[in-house]
Amino acid sequence: MDTGGRASVAGGTEPRSGSATGLARFAVGPVLGVAAAFGVLQAGLAGRYGFHRDELYFMAAGRHLAWGYVDQPPLTPLLARLSTAAFGDGPAGLRAVVVLLCAATVVLIAFAARELGAGRAGQVLAAAGAAVSAMVLALGHVLSTASFDLFVWTVLGVLVLRLLRTGERRWWLAIGAVTGIALLNKDLVLLLAASLLPAVACGGPGARAVLRGWWLPAGALLALLVAAPNLYWQAAHGWPQLTVASGISDQDGLTNRLTFVPMQLVYLSPVLIPVWLAGFRRLRDDRRVSWARPLGHAYLVLCALVLVLGGKPYYALPPLLLVLAAGCRPVAAQLWERGEDGGGTRRTRVRLVGLLLVAGAVNSLITLPVLAPRQLSVVSALYPESAEQVGWPELTAAVAAGWAAVPPEQRGRAVVFATDYGEAGALARYGADYGLPTAYSGHMSFYDWGPPPDSATGPVVLVHPAPYPEVERAFTDCRQVAEVDNGHRLANEEQHAPVLLCAGTVAPWSGLWPRLRHFY
User: Fold this and answer.
1) Both 139 and 239 in a single domain?
2) Are residues 235 and 172 in the same domain?
3) Distance CA 111, CA 177 (A)
4) Is residue 10 part of a domain?
5) I need a surface site. Which of 111, 183, 276, 471 has the fewest CB within 10 A?
6) Boundary (domain end) residue, out of 339, 370, 401
7) Does position 339 have pLDDT exceeding 50, yes or no?
8) pTM for the whole thing?
9) In what order do the strands lie in the sheet with 498-502?
10) How far apart are CA 211 and CA 432, in angstroms?
11) DSSP string of 388-453?
12) Are 499 and 399 in contact (CB under 8 A)?
Protein backbone atom coordinates (compact mmCIF):
# COMPACT_ATOMS: atom_id res chain seq x y z
CA MET A 1 0.00 0.00 0.00
CA ASP A 2 1.32 3.45 -0.97
CA THR A 3 1.07 5.63 2.11
CA GLY A 4 3.62 8.29 1.22
CA GLY A 5 6.91 9.38 2.64
CA ARG A 6 7.68 11.25 5.81
CA ALA A 7 7.64 14.98 5.23
CA SER A 8 8.98 15.57 8.75
CA VAL A 9 12.25 13.96 7.73
CA ALA A 10 12.43 15.75 4.41
CA GLY A 11 11.56 19.06 6.02
CA GLY A 12 14.11 18.71 8.77
CA THR A 13 11.78 18.81 11.78
CA GLU A 14 13.76 18.60 15.01
CA PRO A 15 12.76 15.73 17.30
CA ARG A 16 11.62 16.92 20.68
CA SER A 17 11.86 15.11 23.97
CA GLY A 18 8.85 13.51 25.54
CA SER A 19 7.19 11.91 22.50
CA ALA A 20 7.98 9.13 20.07
CA THR A 21 6.68 11.38 17.28
CA GLY A 22 9.40 13.95 17.89
CA LEU A 23 6.90 16.46 19.25
CA ALA A 24 6.68 17.88 22.73
CA ARG A 25 4.10 16.47 25.09
CA PHE A 26 0.80 18.25 24.82
CA ALA A 27 0.39 20.73 27.66
CA VAL A 28 -2.93 19.26 28.74
CA GLY A 29 -3.39 21.02 32.08
CA PRO A 30 -2.61 24.65 31.21
CA VAL A 31 -4.20 24.51 27.74
CA LEU A 32 -7.42 23.04 29.11
CA GLY A 33 -7.25 25.64 31.86
CA VAL A 34 -7.19 28.45 29.28
CA ALA A 35 -10.06 26.83 27.37
CA ALA A 36 -12.05 26.37 30.58
CA ALA A 37 -11.55 30.01 31.57
CA PHE A 38 -12.74 31.03 28.10
CA GLY A 39 -15.79 28.78 28.42
CA VAL A 40 -16.69 30.00 31.91
CA LEU A 41 -16.52 33.64 30.78
CA GLN A 42 -18.69 32.95 27.75
CA ALA A 43 -21.22 30.85 29.65
CA GLY A 44 -21.48 33.47 32.38
CA LEU A 45 -22.31 36.23 29.90
CA ALA A 46 -24.31 34.21 27.36
CA GLY A 47 -27.74 35.31 28.59
CA ARG A 48 -27.02 38.93 29.58
CA TYR A 49 -28.49 40.56 26.46
CA GLY A 50 -30.95 38.83 24.15
CA PHE A 51 -30.84 36.93 20.87
CA HIS A 52 -29.05 38.27 17.82
CA ARG A 53 -31.26 38.67 14.72
CA ASP A 54 -29.41 35.82 12.98
CA GLU A 55 -29.98 33.53 15.96
CA LEU A 56 -33.72 34.17 15.81
CA TYR A 57 -33.63 33.19 12.14
CA PHE A 58 -31.61 30.03 12.85
CA MET A 59 -34.10 29.02 15.54
CA ALA A 60 -36.97 29.47 13.10
CA ALA A 61 -35.08 27.51 10.43
CA GLY A 62 -34.42 24.78 12.99
CA ARG A 63 -38.17 24.36 13.31
CA HIS A 64 -38.32 23.83 9.52
CA LEU A 65 -35.46 21.34 9.13
CA ALA A 66 -34.38 20.71 5.55
CA TRP A 67 -31.24 19.72 3.65
CA GLY A 68 -30.78 23.33 2.64
CA TYR A 69 -32.04 26.88 2.79
CA VAL A 70 -31.77 29.69 0.27
CA ASP A 71 -28.89 31.31 2.13
CA GLN A 72 -27.12 28.41 3.87
CA PRO A 73 -26.72 24.65 4.23
CA PRO A 74 -28.52 22.86 7.07
CA LEU A 75 -25.95 22.50 9.86
CA THR A 76 -26.29 25.77 11.82
CA PRO A 77 -30.13 25.58 12.05
CA LEU A 78 -29.73 21.96 13.15
CA LEU A 79 -27.24 23.02 15.84
CA ALA A 80 -29.72 25.69 16.98
CA ARG A 81 -32.43 23.10 17.36
CA LEU A 82 -30.20 20.60 19.17
CA SER A 83 -28.72 23.19 21.51
CA THR A 84 -32.10 24.62 22.54
CA ALA A 85 -33.51 21.11 22.98
CA ALA A 86 -30.63 20.13 25.25
CA PHE A 87 -29.95 23.38 27.14
CA GLY A 88 -33.14 25.45 26.91
CA ASP A 89 -34.60 27.91 24.43
CA GLY A 90 -33.16 31.08 25.96
CA PRO A 91 -30.02 32.83 24.70
CA ALA A 92 -27.76 30.89 27.09
CA GLY A 93 -29.22 27.55 25.99
CA LEU A 94 -28.93 28.39 22.30
CA ARG A 95 -25.31 29.48 22.71
CA ALA A 96 -24.12 26.53 24.80
CA VAL A 97 -22.99 24.63 21.70
CA VAL A 98 -21.08 27.68 20.46
CA VAL A 99 -19.25 28.05 23.76
CA LEU A 100 -18.14 24.42 23.53
CA LEU A 101 -17.05 24.75 19.88
CA CYS A 102 -14.97 27.87 20.46
CA ALA A 103 -13.41 26.47 23.63
CA ALA A 104 -12.43 23.44 21.54
CA THR A 105 -10.98 25.82 18.93
CA VAL A 106 -8.71 27.30 21.61
CA VAL A 107 -7.41 23.79 22.32
CA LEU A 108 -6.96 23.07 18.61
CA ILE A 109 -4.80 26.17 18.11
CA ALA A 110 -2.52 24.82 20.84
CA PHE A 111 -2.46 21.47 18.96
CA ALA A 112 -1.43 23.36 15.82
CA ALA A 113 1.41 25.06 17.72
CA ARG A 114 2.54 21.62 18.93
CA GLU A 115 2.53 20.29 15.37
CA LEU A 116 4.78 23.22 14.51
CA GLY A 117 7.26 22.30 17.24
CA ALA A 118 6.09 24.41 20.18
CA GLY A 119 6.78 23.19 23.68
CA ARG A 120 4.66 23.72 26.77
CA ALA A 121 5.05 27.51 26.89
CA GLY A 122 4.43 27.93 23.15
CA GLN A 123 1.29 25.82 23.29
CA VAL A 124 -0.11 27.83 26.19
CA LEU A 125 0.74 31.07 24.39
CA ALA A 126 -1.13 29.83 21.29
CA ALA A 127 -4.20 28.89 23.36
CA ALA A 128 -4.16 32.22 25.20
CA GLY A 129 -3.71 34.17 21.97
CA ALA A 130 -6.73 32.48 20.43
CA ALA A 131 -8.79 32.93 23.59
CA VAL A 132 -8.26 36.71 23.81
CA SER A 133 -8.61 37.46 20.08
CA ALA A 134 -11.62 39.61 19.28
CA MET A 135 -13.16 37.32 16.69
CA VAL A 136 -12.93 34.13 18.77
CA LEU A 137 -14.55 35.96 21.67
CA ALA A 138 -17.27 37.31 19.36
CA LEU A 139 -17.97 33.97 17.68
CA GLY A 140 -18.05 32.23 21.06
CA HIS A 141 -20.92 34.43 22.16
CA VAL A 142 -23.36 34.33 19.22
CA LEU A 143 -24.49 31.27 17.27
CA SER A 144 -23.63 31.85 13.62
CA THR A 145 -22.39 29.93 10.62
CA ALA A 146 -18.99 31.55 11.23
CA SER A 147 -18.82 30.01 14.72
CA PHE A 148 -18.85 26.47 13.34
CA ASP A 149 -16.63 27.51 10.42
CA LEU A 150 -13.99 28.69 12.88
CA PHE A 151 -14.00 25.31 14.60
CA VAL A 152 -14.12 23.08 11.53
CA TRP A 153 -11.56 25.12 9.55
CA THR A 154 -9.20 24.88 12.53
CA VAL A 155 -9.71 21.11 12.58
CA LEU A 156 -8.81 21.08 8.88
CA GLY A 157 -5.72 23.19 9.57
CA VAL A 158 -4.48 20.76 12.22
CA LEU A 159 -5.13 17.78 9.89
CA VAL A 160 -3.29 19.46 7.02
CA LEU A 161 -0.33 20.19 9.28
CA ARG A 162 -0.28 16.54 10.35
CA LEU A 163 -0.43 15.49 6.69
CA LEU A 164 2.46 17.77 5.70
CA ARG A 165 4.60 16.92 8.71
CA THR A 166 4.26 13.16 8.43
CA GLY A 167 3.71 12.76 4.70
CA GLU A 168 1.06 10.14 5.54
CA ARG A 169 -1.40 10.45 2.66
CA ARG A 170 -4.15 8.56 4.42
CA TRP A 171 -4.88 11.80 6.30
CA TRP A 172 -6.64 12.90 3.10
CA LEU A 173 -9.60 10.72 4.10
CA ALA A 174 -10.03 12.56 7.40
CA ILE A 175 -9.54 15.88 5.61
CA GLY A 176 -12.20 14.91 3.08
CA ALA A 177 -14.71 13.86 5.74
CA VAL A 178 -14.23 17.12 7.70
CA THR A 179 -14.46 19.15 4.49
CA GLY A 180 -17.79 17.49 3.72
CA ILE A 181 -19.08 18.42 7.17
CA ALA A 182 -17.84 21.99 6.63
CA LEU A 183 -19.78 22.10 3.35
CA LEU A 184 -22.93 21.22 5.29
CA ASN A 185 -22.39 24.47 7.19
CA LYS A 186 -21.13 26.89 4.55
CA ASP A 187 -19.65 26.67 1.06
CA LEU A 188 -16.79 29.00 2.02
CA VAL A 189 -14.58 26.01 2.80
CA LEU A 190 -14.13 25.72 -0.96
CA LEU A 191 -12.08 28.94 -0.78
CA LEU A 192 -9.83 27.28 1.78
CA ALA A 193 -9.37 24.27 -0.51
CA ALA A 194 -8.68 26.57 -3.48
CA SER A 195 -5.97 28.25 -1.38
CA LEU A 196 -4.35 25.20 0.19
CA LEU A 197 -4.01 22.90 -2.80
CA PRO A 198 -2.02 25.32 -5.00
CA ALA A 199 0.10 26.29 -1.99
CA VAL A 200 0.94 22.63 -1.36
CA ALA A 201 1.62 22.03 -5.05
CA CYS A 202 4.11 24.91 -5.05
CA GLY A 203 5.64 23.94 -1.73
CA GLY A 204 8.56 21.91 -3.00
CA PRO A 205 9.10 18.17 -3.57
CA GLY A 206 8.31 17.18 0.02
CA ALA A 207 4.96 18.96 0.00
CA ARG A 208 4.04 17.85 -3.52
CA ALA A 209 4.59 14.23 -2.52
CA VAL A 210 1.38 14.24 -0.47
CA LEU A 211 -0.62 15.04 -3.63
CA ARG A 212 0.39 11.84 -5.38
CA GLY A 213 -1.61 8.64 -5.41
CA TRP A 214 -5.29 8.06 -4.96
CA TRP A 215 -5.72 9.22 -1.36
CA LEU A 216 -6.41 12.84 -2.35
CA PRO A 217 -9.11 11.91 -4.91
CA ALA A 218 -10.59 9.51 -2.36
CA GLY A 219 -10.76 12.31 0.20
CA ALA A 220 -12.39 14.63 -2.34
CA LEU A 221 -14.97 11.97 -3.17
CA LEU A 222 -15.70 11.46 0.52
CA ALA A 223 -16.24 15.21 0.95
CA LEU A 224 -18.64 15.17 -2.00
CA LEU A 225 -20.59 12.24 -0.57
CA VAL A 226 -20.97 13.86 2.85
CA ALA A 227 -22.15 17.15 1.30
CA ALA A 228 -24.29 15.49 -1.40
CA PRO A 229 -27.72 16.00 0.28
CA ASN A 230 -27.25 19.76 0.46
CA LEU A 231 -25.75 19.94 -3.03
CA TYR A 232 -28.79 18.07 -4.37
CA TRP A 233 -31.12 20.46 -2.51
CA GLN A 234 -29.33 23.50 -3.94
CA ALA A 235 -29.39 22.09 -7.47
CA ALA A 236 -33.08 21.24 -7.19
CA HIS A 237 -33.86 24.81 -6.07
CA GLY A 238 -31.75 26.60 -8.68
CA TRP A 239 -28.65 27.27 -6.52
CA PRO A 240 -30.18 30.14 -4.51
CA GLN A 241 -27.06 30.47 -2.34
CA LEU A 242 -25.22 31.85 -5.38
CA THR A 243 -27.89 34.54 -5.72
CA VAL A 244 -27.56 35.47 -2.06
CA ALA A 245 -23.74 35.50 -2.17
CA SER A 246 -23.78 37.69 -5.28
CA GLY A 247 -26.12 40.13 -3.58
CA ILE A 248 -23.88 40.36 -0.49
CA SER A 249 -20.86 41.08 -2.69
CA ASP A 250 -22.73 43.74 -4.68
CA GLN A 251 -24.08 45.40 -1.54
CA ASP A 252 -21.03 45.26 0.76
CA GLY A 253 -18.12 44.33 -1.51
CA LEU A 254 -16.43 47.74 -1.59
CA THR A 255 -16.65 48.19 2.17
CA ASN A 256 -15.35 44.66 2.74
CA ARG A 257 -12.35 45.29 0.47
CA LEU A 258 -11.48 48.62 2.08
CA THR A 259 -11.67 47.24 5.61
CA PHE A 260 -10.10 43.82 4.95
CA VAL A 261 -6.52 44.50 6.08
CA PRO A 262 -7.30 46.59 9.19
CA MET A 263 -10.00 44.14 10.25
CA GLN A 264 -7.55 41.24 10.08
CA LEU A 265 -5.48 43.03 12.71
CA VAL A 266 -8.52 44.01 14.79
CA TYR A 267 -9.95 40.49 14.72
CA LEU A 268 -6.65 39.13 16.00
CA SER A 269 -5.75 41.94 18.45
CA PRO A 270 -2.91 44.43 18.02
CA VAL A 271 -1.13 42.82 20.98
CA LEU A 272 -0.74 39.58 19.01
CA ILE A 273 0.54 41.13 15.79
CA PRO A 274 4.23 40.55 16.73
CA VAL A 275 3.51 36.85 17.33
CA TRP A 276 1.62 36.65 14.04
CA LEU A 277 4.51 38.29 12.17
CA ALA A 278 6.94 35.92 13.88
CA GLY A 279 4.84 33.08 12.49
CA PHE A 280 5.17 34.41 8.95
CA ARG A 281 8.93 34.85 9.32
CA ARG A 282 9.33 31.38 10.75
CA LEU A 283 7.32 29.72 7.98
CA ARG A 284 9.39 31.63 5.43
CA ASP A 285 12.89 31.24 6.91
CA ASP A 286 13.06 28.34 9.37
CA ARG A 287 14.19 25.17 7.60
CA ARG A 288 12.93 23.08 10.51
CA VAL A 289 9.35 23.89 9.46
CA SER A 290 9.85 24.24 5.73
CA TRP A 291 7.31 21.45 5.32
CA ALA A 292 4.65 23.83 6.75
CA ARG A 293 5.48 26.72 4.42
CA PRO A 294 2.31 26.12 2.33
CA LEU A 295 0.31 27.24 5.38
CA GLY A 296 1.59 30.81 5.09
CA HIS A 297 1.17 30.86 1.31
CA ALA A 298 -2.38 29.50 1.61
CA TYR A 299 -3.34 32.30 3.99
CA LEU A 300 -2.12 34.91 1.52
CA VAL A 301 -3.93 33.22 -1.38
CA LEU A 302 -7.12 33.06 0.70
CA CYS A 303 -6.85 36.78 1.47
CA ALA A 304 -6.49 37.52 -2.24
CA LEU A 305 -9.55 35.42 -3.09
CA VAL A 306 -11.67 37.08 -0.41
CA LEU A 307 -10.61 40.52 -1.63
CA VAL A 308 -11.43 39.69 -5.25
CA LEU A 309 -14.84 38.28 -4.33
CA GLY A 310 -15.67 41.11 -1.92
CA GLY A 311 -16.19 38.68 0.95
CA LYS A 312 -16.30 39.58 4.62
CA PRO A 313 -12.91 40.06 6.32
CA TYR A 314 -13.57 37.36 8.93
CA TYR A 315 -13.61 34.69 6.19
CA ALA A 316 -9.80 34.50 6.50
CA LEU A 317 -9.64 34.30 10.29
CA PRO A 318 -8.96 30.57 10.93
CA PRO A 319 -5.76 30.39 8.82
CA LEU A 320 -4.65 33.65 10.44
CA LEU A 321 -4.80 31.89 13.81
CA LEU A 322 -2.72 29.02 12.43
CA VAL A 323 -0.03 31.48 11.33
CA LEU A 324 -0.19 32.89 14.86
CA ALA A 325 0.41 29.36 16.18
CA ALA A 326 3.55 29.13 14.04
CA GLY A 327 4.97 32.18 15.79
CA CYS A 328 4.43 30.87 19.30
CA ARG A 329 7.53 28.67 19.44
CA PRO A 330 10.11 31.41 18.71
CA VAL A 331 8.34 33.94 20.95
CA ALA A 332 8.04 31.44 23.80
CA ALA A 333 11.65 30.38 23.27
CA GLN A 334 12.82 33.95 23.74
CA LEU A 335 10.73 34.47 26.86
CA TRP A 336 10.57 31.11 28.63
CA GLU A 337 12.50 28.24 27.10
CA ARG A 338 16.11 29.07 27.87
CA GLY A 339 18.63 27.17 25.84
CA GLU A 340 16.57 26.93 22.64
CA ASP A 341 16.74 30.34 21.04
CA GLY A 342 17.82 32.47 23.97
CA GLY A 343 16.09 33.41 27.17
CA GLY A 344 13.82 36.04 28.57
CA THR A 345 13.67 38.09 31.70
CA ARG A 346 10.92 37.63 34.22
CA ARG A 347 9.87 41.23 33.63
CA THR A 348 9.38 40.61 29.91
CA ARG A 349 7.30 37.51 30.57
CA VAL A 350 5.12 39.34 33.06
CA ARG A 351 4.69 42.15 30.55
CA LEU A 352 3.48 39.70 27.88
CA VAL A 353 0.99 38.11 30.27
CA GLY A 354 -0.25 41.58 31.19
CA LEU A 355 -0.66 42.54 27.55
CA LEU A 356 -2.67 39.37 26.88
CA LEU A 357 -4.94 40.16 29.82
CA VAL A 358 -5.41 43.71 28.59
CA ALA A 359 -6.20 42.43 25.07
CA GLY A 360 -8.73 40.01 26.50
CA ALA A 361 -10.35 42.72 28.62
CA VAL A 362 -10.59 45.24 25.76
CA ASN A 363 -11.88 42.68 23.27
CA SER A 364 -14.40 41.38 25.79
CA LEU A 365 -15.64 44.91 26.41
CA ILE A 366 -16.26 45.32 22.67
CA THR A 367 -17.62 41.90 21.70
CA LEU A 368 -19.29 40.52 24.85
CA PRO A 369 -22.27 41.80 26.86
CA VAL A 370 -20.16 43.50 29.51
CA LEU A 371 -21.65 47.00 29.29
CA ALA A 372 -25.23 47.85 30.21
CA PRO A 373 -27.44 48.00 27.08
CA ARG A 374 -27.84 51.75 27.47
CA GLN A 375 -24.05 52.12 27.16
CA LEU A 376 -23.68 49.98 24.03
CA SER A 377 -23.51 52.96 21.71
CA VAL A 378 -19.93 53.41 22.97
CA VAL A 379 -18.81 50.18 21.24
CA SER A 380 -21.53 49.51 18.65
CA ALA A 381 -19.70 51.63 16.05
CA LEU A 382 -16.80 49.14 16.24
CA TYR A 383 -18.97 46.05 16.67
CA PRO A 384 -22.58 46.69 15.62
CA GLU A 385 -23.60 43.08 16.27
CA SER A 386 -23.80 43.82 20.00
CA ALA A 387 -26.62 46.34 19.46
CA GLU A 388 -28.55 43.77 17.41
CA GLN A 389 -28.99 41.65 20.55
CA VAL A 390 -31.24 44.22 22.24
CA GLY A 391 -34.92 45.04 21.80
CA TRP A 392 -36.60 41.98 20.29
CA PRO A 393 -39.24 41.49 23.02
CA GLU A 394 -39.96 45.23 22.78
CA LEU A 395 -40.42 44.91 19.03
CA THR A 396 -42.90 42.09 19.63
CA ALA A 397 -44.75 44.25 22.15
CA ALA A 398 -45.03 47.04 19.56
CA VAL A 399 -46.46 44.58 17.03
CA ALA A 400 -48.91 43.40 19.68
CA ALA A 401 -50.01 47.02 20.10
CA GLY A 402 -50.62 47.13 16.35
CA TRP A 403 -52.54 43.86 16.54
CA ALA A 404 -54.73 45.31 19.30
CA ALA A 405 -55.85 47.97 16.80
CA VAL A 406 -57.39 45.25 14.58
CA PRO A 407 -61.13 44.94 15.35
CA PRO A 408 -61.78 41.57 17.05
CA GLU A 409 -64.28 40.52 14.38
CA GLN A 410 -61.59 40.95 11.67
CA ARG A 411 -58.75 39.07 13.35
CA GLY A 412 -59.73 35.73 11.82
CA ARG A 413 -58.67 37.00 8.40
CA ALA A 414 -55.87 39.36 9.55
CA VAL A 415 -52.16 38.77 8.96
CA VAL A 416 -48.93 39.89 10.67
CA PHE A 417 -46.19 40.52 8.10
CA ALA A 418 -42.52 41.32 8.84
CA THR A 419 -40.10 42.67 6.26
CA ASP A 420 -36.91 40.91 7.41
CA TYR A 421 -35.94 37.64 9.03
CA GLY A 422 -34.87 39.22 12.32
CA GLU A 423 -38.32 40.69 12.90
CA ALA A 424 -40.04 37.53 11.70
CA GLY A 425 -37.78 35.41 13.93
CA ALA A 426 -38.54 37.61 16.95
CA LEU A 427 -42.27 37.26 16.32
CA ALA A 428 -41.88 33.50 15.95
CA ARG A 429 -40.00 33.33 19.27
CA TYR A 430 -42.00 35.80 21.38
CA GLY A 431 -45.30 36.25 19.50
CA ALA A 432 -47.27 33.59 21.36
CA ASP A 433 -46.45 35.30 24.67
CA TYR A 434 -48.21 38.41 23.36
CA GLY A 435 -51.18 36.63 21.81
CA LEU A 436 -50.00 37.14 18.22
CA PRO A 437 -50.75 34.77 15.33
CA THR A 438 -48.05 33.24 13.13
CA ALA A 439 -46.03 35.94 11.39
CA TYR A 440 -45.11 35.79 7.70
CA SER A 441 -42.22 37.28 5.75
CA GLY A 442 -40.80 37.20 2.23
CA HIS A 443 -37.19 37.48 3.44
CA MET A 444 -34.75 34.60 2.86
CA SER A 445 -36.21 31.19 3.73
CA PHE A 446 -39.24 32.68 5.50
CA TYR A 447 -40.57 33.06 1.96
CA ASP A 448 -40.53 29.27 1.59
CA TRP A 449 -42.60 28.82 4.75
CA GLY A 450 -45.47 31.02 3.49
CA PRO A 451 -47.67 32.47 2.08
CA PRO A 452 -50.77 33.18 4.14
CA PRO A 453 -53.96 31.66 2.73
CA ASP A 454 -55.88 33.73 0.17
CA SER A 455 -58.78 33.77 2.61
CA ALA A 456 -56.67 36.10 4.82
CA THR A 457 -57.87 39.25 3.09
CA GLY A 458 -56.84 41.67 5.82
CA PRO A 459 -56.23 43.77 7.76
CA VAL A 460 -52.44 43.41 7.71
CA VAL A 461 -50.16 44.45 10.57
CA LEU A 462 -46.94 45.43 8.77
CA VAL A 463 -43.60 45.83 10.56
CA HIS A 464 -40.74 48.12 9.49
CA PRO A 465 -41.39 48.74 5.77
CA ALA A 466 -39.12 51.80 5.38
CA PRO A 467 -36.08 50.09 3.76
CA TYR A 468 -38.37 48.01 1.53
CA PRO A 469 -40.77 50.32 -0.37
CA GLU A 470 -41.84 47.45 -2.64
CA VAL A 471 -43.28 45.70 0.40
CA GLU A 472 -45.44 48.63 1.46
CA ARG A 473 -46.77 49.03 -2.09
CA ALA A 474 -48.27 45.54 -1.78
CA PHE A 475 -50.76 46.77 0.84
CA THR A 476 -53.56 49.33 0.89
CA ASP A 477 -54.57 52.20 3.19
CA CYS A 478 -51.65 51.89 5.62
CA ARG A 479 -51.32 54.03 8.73
CA GLN A 480 -48.85 53.90 11.59
CA VAL A 481 -50.31 52.55 14.84
CA ALA A 482 -47.18 51.84 16.92
CA GLU A 483 -43.42 52.33 17.02
CA VAL A 484 -40.62 50.11 18.30
CA ASP A 485 -38.70 51.42 21.31
CA ASN A 486 -36.08 49.13 22.84
CA GLY A 487 -36.21 51.10 26.10
CA HIS A 488 -32.47 51.78 26.18
CA ARG A 489 -32.19 54.67 23.69
CA LEU A 490 -29.95 52.36 21.72
CA ALA A 491 -29.67 53.02 17.99
CA ASN A 492 -29.95 49.77 16.08
CA GLU A 493 -31.74 48.64 12.94
CA GLU A 494 -35.10 48.20 14.66
CA GLN A 495 -35.17 51.24 16.94
CA HIS A 496 -38.12 53.52 16.05
CA ALA A 497 -39.26 51.08 13.36
CA PRO A 498 -42.89 51.77 12.45
CA VAL A 499 -45.73 49.30 12.85
CA LEU A 500 -48.43 49.94 10.24
CA LEU A 501 -52.00 48.76 10.07
CA CYS A 502 -53.10 48.24 6.45
CA ALA A 503 -56.62 47.58 5.23
CA GLY A 504 -55.63 44.69 2.97
CA THR A 505 -53.54 43.54 0.02
CA VAL A 506 -53.53 44.73 -3.59
CA ALA A 507 -53.93 41.13 -4.80
CA PRO A 508 -54.52 37.66 -3.33
CA TRP A 509 -51.55 36.35 -1.34
CA SER A 510 -50.85 33.56 -3.85
CA GLY A 511 -50.36 36.09 -6.64
CA LEU A 512 -48.65 38.67 -4.46
CA TRP A 513 -46.15 36.34 -2.81
CA PRO A 514 -43.44 36.29 -5.55
CA ARG A 515 -43.28 40.11 -5.40
CA LEU A 516 -42.53 39.96 -1.69
CA ARG A 517 -39.47 37.70 -1.93
CA HIS A 518 -36.15 39.41 -1.24
CA PHE A 519 -32.68 38.28 -0.20
CA TYR A 520 -31.06 41.46 1.13
Assistant:
1) yes
2) yes
3) 20
4) no
5) 276
6) 370
7) no
8) 0.90
9) 439-441, 415-418, 460-463, 498-502, 479-483
10) 56
11) GGS-HHHHHHHHHHHHHTS-GGGGGG-EEEESSHHHHHHHHHHGGGGT---EEE-BGGGGGG----
12) yes
